Amino acid sequence: MSYFAHTTPFASNSLETKDDLTKYLVGLLDPLAAHTSPGGARIHLGFTGTHYDEAAAQLEGFSRPIWGLASLLAGGGAYEGSQRWVNGFANGTNPDHEEFWGNMKDKDQRMVECSAVGFSLAVAKEHLWNPLPPEGKKNLEAWLGGMNDKEMPNTNWLWFRVFANLGLSKVGSPKYDAKRMKADLDHLDTFYIGDGWSRDGPEGVVQLDYYSSSFAIQYAQLVYSKLAQAEDPARCEEFKNRARKFALDFVYYFDTEGRAIPFGRSLTYRFAMSSFWGALAFADVELPAPLTWGVVKGLQLRNIRYWARQPGAYYPDRTLTIGYCYPNHNMTENYNSPGSPYWCCKSFIALSLPISHPFWASTEEPYPVSLTNTTKPLYKPLHIATNLGGHHYILSSGQQCSYPVKQSAAKYGKFAYSSAFGYSVPVGSLTLEELGGDNALALSDDNGEVWKCRRDTREARIEGGRWLRSMWYPWKDVAVETWLVPPTADAPLWHLRIHRIRTGRNLISAEGGWALYGQDKDDRALRPSTGEAFGTLENSGEARTASKAGAAGIVELGGRQGRSGKALRTDANTNLMVPRAVMPILMDEHEASEKDIWLVTGVFGLPSAEGQEGAAPGWETQWFKRPTVPEEIADLMR
What we know:
Number of strands: 19
CATH class of the largest domain: Mainly Alpha
CATH topology of the largest domain: Glycosyltransferase
Organism: Postia placenta MAD-698-R-SB12
Largest sheet: 8 strands, antiparallel
Protein name: DUF2264 domain-containing protein
Domain DUF2264: 17-367, 374-634
Strand order of the largest sheet: 8-9-10-11-19-16-15-14
CATH architecture of the largest domain: Alpha/alpha barrel
Number of helices: 18
Shape: globular
InterPro entries: DUF2264_C (IPR049237), DUF2264_N (IPR049349), UCP014753 (IPR016624)
Distance between the termini: 58 Å
Oligomer: single chain
Pfam families: DUF2264, DUF2264_C
């Protein structure tokens, strides 16, 4: 009788039309009423902490749903509860009211929430600004304008001040600072590195995750290009040009079922990952082939549908949980409050468009056939994307967070990230089970008490468009050079990893493959395979696991005799996609030596298709179609 917990209140919504999307948004906004303060200025959704104060956390709960509400109102829709936010604007910015948000200081979290407020004034002035009394308007513009003389982080945050000033300009406020806004925009343009991509910071930052796209930079550029077209036409056209180039890379981060590839931080924002596609429509960008409005519509709506059907994304009262596919604080950052997940409301921007817009008027189309069964080097983010054999994932080298972020080695340093299998994060520090070391080479110099994985990657590059090559240094006397080779037509479900280790100390290594759902057909823990479809397999030099999520395996391909295979049951709540996971790994021991140690690893993965339990029939045949080391790398090994 476990089925009752495997659905959501939104599962019956087909999410095909503008009315369907409106219904879903209203279903997210309505439950917030019970958590809203009497004056409307704060929304309190839970008691977990953040590095910033509680007033800012409750402001976050208030502001982030505005991305959706303002879009709905701008597109001619109505929401009965919108007065709650009008009241909140008046009381949250009133220094004499008990729900006052507090004035902004340097690098204040309140600055982040100004972006949604500014957007709402720019697109829904008649509904959210005009109803305010004169004193309320005066307080709101003074509060927003209060950030213009404050120090901000040298990151995507500068866009939040641009949006505050954009909103102030649209309501004719004297607090609008055109000089400040231009200076911020000019500086943000220095983050641009070509091919549509921007870093999340100045030169030297190698962080190009969803903040460089849907969460912040690309999304902001597109919204600005629509709202500031008359005042800043040249910059707006440049932003649209960047989006056209970027779209041809970004499409590879989504699979045919609508899932985005989890990578980087802030993934509790969930379907904000697809908001770029709605922003393309908002900005009326001329689409590059093979993208059409039907394709863009499908990319956006399939992603939202996926999240509308994830039971673990919602509490029983329909508010959003903190986590990814289920409540999980192991993968969050110290800036994730209970209101943080509502950044996903950015993906409702399509509601601002008239029903006649080609986004809504076009028939939804599937993922472009021309982009399936392909491998694509993505040079700016240092990724190689592939969907050969029906598995959508990226190989990754060269990215890392430029400041301390919880679990940054897992979020940026793993070798591969999958739309189906996600990735895992540590829940402790003393065992392999706690480490969640999927798609990583974990090393220990103390007999397995503490493990280190790749975090700070050096000299990363894509060589000849064929593979990734990089260096990493877990200790001063240990250097690891890693090659990541994508799948080929001859072995479409495998990718290769070749590691050259030079070590001045004795080491134990554990290399992980994909982590996947770890239960059998009766929801008990997977057992060793006895010829049945689901189960685990352990041998010398290889390990394999199969469940309703698909099949995954790992094999030593370099002839090294010491590597032993194991199907490791990772600790609960390590994996982002499923709370109970099993991961095939290879274990080995390495003595300190002046000679190179070579590890050649084949990694197999085939997710189950939509509506199917387990890997497609015949996958065992693919298991034996092993990849070979490219000749150029083999020459180095010799």
